[in-house]
Amino acid sequence: MTFQVGRVMQAGSIKRKGDRRLPCRIRKNPIINAGCKAKIRHFDRTEKSRCKNRFGDRKKKLGKVGNILSLTAGICLLITLFCGLAAPSALAQSPENNGYVGDKPLELYSHDTVQGDLFYTIGNSYYSGKVYPGDVYSVIHNVNLPEGATVKFARLYVYWTWSAEGITGKYPEMSLSFNGESPEPEREYSDRKGWGIYDYPTGTWAYDVSAYVPGSGTFSTEIENTGSGIPYVCFDGVGLLIVYTDPNGKYMEYWIGEGADELNSQMDENGNPLYYASPNQTICEMLRPTLQFPVRSATLWTIIQSGNWEDNVLLINGNEFPGICNGKPYPDLDIDTREVKDYLKSGENSILFQAVGDYVVPSGSFLVVEKDSLTEEAQEDSQEDSQEDSQTEDVQASSEENSENPEASGIENPGDETESAPGFELVSTLAFLAGGKLAAGHRKQNTRK
Hints:
28% of the residues lie in helices and 33% in strands. By secondary structure, it is an alpha+beta fold.
C-alpha cells in the first residue's frame, strides 16, 4: 500500500509541474532575458520549495495514517482472537465423553420392610482441604439407638473429592480404620470430568461395618492418604447409616440409594453452558421406588457433595423443590431431610436431582415409608411361602404312599404295554411347584434384605 501511495504522489507532482504556466516569455534582449531568467529561477526555487514542503507534509500525514491503520489492524486482530476464545461453548464441539452430564444414577443398595427405623449421622465431619500422604482425616460418630434395638446393618460412607497429583487427576489411595478395625470398601463409586483441565475424580466409598456396630456407642473413623509421591485428596465428610429392628418401633419400608454422579451446568452471563452441559442434561436419578398405599408418612434424606447453591432442584414425580442445597450442615456437604408423603403415589415413583447452574455430586438418597402394618406384598410373600411349603409336604406324603402301594398310585409295571418313565408325574408336579416358587421369588428385589 505504501508503494502505491508513492506512485500516486509522484504522478500528481509531475502533472502539476507540467501544467504550470510561466509568468513571462524569454526574449532576445539580454537584460530582459536576464531579469526574466532570474524570475524564472526564483519562481522555480520557490515552487520547488513549496512542492517539497507540501510533499513532506503529506508524507507526515500519510505516516500518521499508516500508524493509525496499523494500530487499528492490531486491535481488530486482538478483538478477533478474544472473541474466538470467548465464543459461547455451545458453538464449540462438545467432548465425546462429558462426565458433567447426568450419566450415573444412584444404585439401590437395599430395600426391605422391617419393624424398626433408620439412623444416619455425619458426626463431627468437616471439609478437610488437601490431605497429603501421611496425613489423617478423623471423624467421631455418636450413635443412640432405642433400648432393645438390634442392628440389621451398618454402612459407612466416605465422601471424597478433588483427588489429584499436581494438576493431573488421580484416584486416591487411602486406608480406613473404624474403631481400630480395617474394613475394605465394599463399593467404590466415582465420577470425573473426563476432558480438559481440572479433570479430577470425586466419589463415594461405601464400607460394610455391621460387624463393628453392635448398638449404641461412640465410633471413630480415621482415613490416611497412603499414596506414593505427593498426591492429595479432599474429604467432604463421613456418614454412618444404620438400619435397625425394634419390637416397639414402627412398621416401615425403606430404600437405600448410593453412588456419585458429578454434575456441572454452570453458565456464563449470557446463559450459555460453560462446560457443554445444560441443566436439562444434569439430572441424576436418585430412587425409583414402587409403593403400595395407604402410608402414614414418608421421609426422604438427600445427600449432596459440593452443593450450597439454592437453584438446585429436587424432583418428586414432577414436583419441584428448590433450595435443597442450602449449605447445611456446611457448604461442602448438603443433607436435606423432608416429609414427602403428599408427593408420592401408589405404584412407581420418580425421585430426581437437577443441578441448575452449579457443580454438585449427588451421593445418597434414603426413603423411609411408615405404614400401619407390614406391606401387603410382604404378607402375600409370606402366605405364598407357607402355601408352597404345605403343598410340598402333601406331594412328599403322596410320593411315600405311592412307593408303598404302587397299585393305588396307578403307576404301571415296566412290563405293561404302555410304559411311563419312573416318577414322571412326581417330577412334573415338583417342576410345576418349583416354577411357581421361582415366579414368586422373581417379584422380590434383588437387593440386600
